[in-house]
Design brief:
This protein is α+β, with helices and mostly antiparallel strands. Helix content is about 45%, strand content about 20%. The strands form 3 sheets. A 3-stranded antiparallel β-sheet has the order 5-7-6. Strands 1-2 form a two-stranded antiparallel ribbon. Bound molecules: zinc ion. Zinc ion binds near residues 5, 8, 25, 26 and 28.
Length: about 120
């Protein structure tokens, strides 16, 4: 059974959702929420962003392909993106999670389901 993360709107298996401050979050958002408890330290955030910026080229080939696919399509469903890249939806979701944390891609709810878009 799929449920929706209340933060990033990603669909995940119900048993993968974690409870955080009354919200049902996917593992990524849960870890992010836990790790941003100290987010009031602006220098730490700045440093993290700078590291990401300088590491911007270090995407795996699959992550790069996914990013290029979404950039070209503007909006693409998870299942369509998985099909185009020859990945399972779980594999795709994993690559997407990395790209979302790098603030390159994000998921958006649409009437027909979740689509991936540029961040
Ligand atoms: Zn989430």
């Amino acid at each position: 059974m799929l449920k929706r993360c209340e933060r990033c709107q990603a669909e995940v298996e119900a048993e993968e959702l974690r409870d955080y401050a009354g919200q049902q979050l996917c593992e990524d958002c849960y870890l992010e929420a836990m790790s941003t408890i100290r987010a009031c330290d602006p220098w730490a955030v700045h440093t993290a962003k700078s590291i990401l910026a300088t590491q911007g080229q270090q995407l795996t080939p699959q992550q790069q392909q996914l990013y290029d696919l979404v950039r070209g399509a503007q909006e693409i469903s998870l299942s369509e993106a998985a099909e185009q890249l020859g990945l399972s939806e779980n594999e795709l979701r994993r690559e997407f999670a990395t790209l979302r944390h790098m603030e390159l891609l994000r998921a958006q709810p649409r009437p027909q389901g979740i689509v991936l878009t540029l961040f």
